[in-house]
Amino acid sequence: MQKERAPRNKTLTLTDAERVGYKNKLYYPANDIHFDSIIDKTICGDLFAVLAKLPTAFVDLLIIDPPYNLNKNFHGDKFSKSDDQSYIEYLESWLPKLLKVLKPNGSVYICGDWKSTSCLYMVMREYTVVRNRIIWQREKGRGAKANWKNASVKQKRKVLAPYKENGKP
């Protein structure tokens, strides 16, 4: 019997048919990767082994979710927290090589937690033009006994556009 979820829980559940469909979209590269073979596929492999096989300038949008700088076990693949400089060196070991897949007008989105975003920014500004940061408000989080919940404060205030004087066009 499946556990009943909280009313606001937005976790997705796949049907067996959806699982099969997504599994069929996995691509396991053995040799050089050709553009036609990866259209509408998910490349499944070790990033460091796949990087050199990727074609150049073929991606419009690159979404990257690297391991946050935490002690974490990803189904047997362990990532150990390191100091900021070591984490920056880790990011620089693959990010510049991965950026070669972007088209000249392509975009990059990188996910990170509040602790790793300073390192991500330092590396990103070396190799890209950082235009914005997207930060979301979490409604759930651990209690303040162990750590503080990451949250933001919404302020309501009247904002005047710069081309309007005293609120009038």
What does this structure look like?
- The protein is an alpha/beta fold and 169 residues long.
- It has five helices and six strands, in the order αββαβββααβα.
- The protein has a two-stranded parallel sheet with strand order 1-2. It has a two-stranded parallel sheet with strand order 3-6.
- Helix 3 packs across helix 5 (117-127).
- The mean pLDDT is 82.
- Class based on secondary structure composition and strand pairing: alpha/beta
What would you report as the Rg, rounded to the nearest angstrom?
Answer: 21 Å
Identify the overall geometry.
globular
The spatial strand order of the largest sheet comes to: 1-2
Number of helices: 5
Strand content: 5-15%
Report, as a whole number of angstroms, the end-to-end distance: 61 Å
Largest sheet: 2 strands, parallel
Walk me through the topology.
Elements: H1 16-23, E1 26-27, E2 42-43, H2 47-50, E3 59-64, E4 72-74, E5 77-79, H3 84-92, H4 95-98, E6 102-110, H5 117-127
Parallel strand pairs: 1-2, 3-6
Antiparallel strand pairs: 4-5
Helix pairs in contact: 3-5
Summarize the structure in short:
The protein is of the alpha/beta class and 169 residues long. It has 5 helices and 6 strands.
Which key phrases capture this entry?
169 residues, alpha/beta, two-stranded parallel ribbon, 5 helices
